[in-house]
Design goal:
Elements (H helix, E strand, L loop, with lengths): L15 H9 L6 H12 L5 E4 L9 E5 L4 E6 L17 H24 L3 E6 L4 H18 L1
Parallel strand pairs: 3-4
Antiparallel strand pairs: 1-2, 2-3
Length: 148
Amino acid sequence: MPKGNSPGPPPPASSADALARMKSQRQRDTKPEVLLRSTLHRAGYRYRVNIAPLAGMRGRADIAFPRIKVAVFVDGCFWHSCPQHGTLPKRNTTWWRIKLASNVMRDREVDERLHREGWEVIRVWEHEDTEEAAHRVTEVLEQRYSVR
């Protein structure tokens, strides 16, 4: 298997529409991520955006609180295989199955590495209610700030 658990180079797009959809996918500043950041900012929290919490780490936290070691990842339902909304394309199924499984495996490896280094990891699905997700994050932040 090629570098980083990848199934190899992506197969050609099955249609012009599929190619356009893939090219339009944002890697950062997605709507759910921006909404969560905005909600946390309005609540008075300051954070870093799109950072690798640890040197040499492949995964980048969408929202990070480095001083108290809290990393928030806003995961897309398709790319991270949401059990509720994750789908598998009908074309190039084998390639996509391997690709999406490797994404999930990488997520778990990132979580484990951060936990070993004393970080709290919060995973938010893109479909989650922003206020509920912000509440989950702020509970962890308050607990971490009170321990300091």
